[in-house]
Amino acid sequence: MNLFDVYPLFPLNIVQGKGCYVWDENGIKYLDLYGGHAVISIGHSHPHYVEMISNQVSKLGFYSNSVINKIQQEVARRLGIISGYDDYSLFLINSGAEANENAMKLASFHNGRTRIVSFQKSFHGRTSLAVEVTNNPKIIAPINNNSHVVYLPLNDIEAVKAELSKGDVCAVIIEGIQGVGGILTLTGTFLQELRTICTATGTILILDEIQCGYGRSGKFFAHQYAGIKPDIITVAKGIGNGFPMAGVLISPMFTPVYGMLGTTFGGNHLASTAALAVLDIMEKENLIENAAKVGDYLIKELKQFPQIKEVRGRGLMIGLELDEPIKELRSRLLFDYHVFTGVTGTHVIRLLPPLCLSLEEAEEFLSRFKKALN
Ligand SMILES: Cc1ncc(COP(=O)(O)O)c(C=O)c1O
User: Which stretches are transmembrane (predicted)?
Assistant: First the structure.
């Protein structure tokens, strides 16, 4: 059997990782400014993470959500404190799409409505409703195209007001910083006014923090720069540092009912242990502060490069827009200078490194990037 061929692959087999570096099967070492697609938060193969997961799997890897899981309860307690949302509840699942799917389902159970406002260039996943709120017709199958969604321009509060004033919108879903869309930030006033209009119209505000959350922006959540509180927040990627896991943070206004949501694997013993190890390391090594500090430094330095048209983002979520298509530059960076980077569209490089990236490693990247540009 062959693999279903949906990924355009680099001809590289990565077999090992440590901190902000990965190695291929030929022993070549790469600086990882991609974090395996914004997933690696605490760095590759952190010893504390390896030890906690190894110990847990030697005791119990999985049992079902029909019994008490104290590790899951501890994740909720710790996540509530570190994120500033200790009055919210946590529902654990396995992927970002699943988190958004459950968030929108919950919103609809709550207010009985069926229309969703999303934004141009947004990405929220590939399952049925998650893909329908994703503004990319190429990945929406006819069966998922059910007219639930209107896509509005980002940061256009008048367009949102016009839509929400109809009084029948179930939820607004928005990324704290658009990732796939090209690292596009929201203005503080837009988010603040969005919060106000959602409350006034009984519309649920869902913040998708799957890519920009979990410390990546330099605050625990990117929306915290605007000082607002959404009704529902979704997280994934960095939560398990590569262990498949996601979460929905749910405000106290929602009442849980037995059976309304559910999952076989979500929040299992091993995944929850991975999440606890991530929180331990984020706190012990001050990774959120590090993301802010190293991110500010990178953004400041990158703005000096005349070849870059625009530097966007916050913390360690950075987009570099060039005048030229970046395909060749990215290949040169990877194969000649051994640096992994991400991409979005044809002209934007995405930097999404582990949150433990040091100033020295940032310097190393800048020096290799300079050479690759020339
Ligand atoms: C903002 C955002 N939401 C949702 C998703 C979907 O997450 P997953 O691929 O884990 O389903 C992604 C994935 O890239 C994302 O960036």
Answer: none
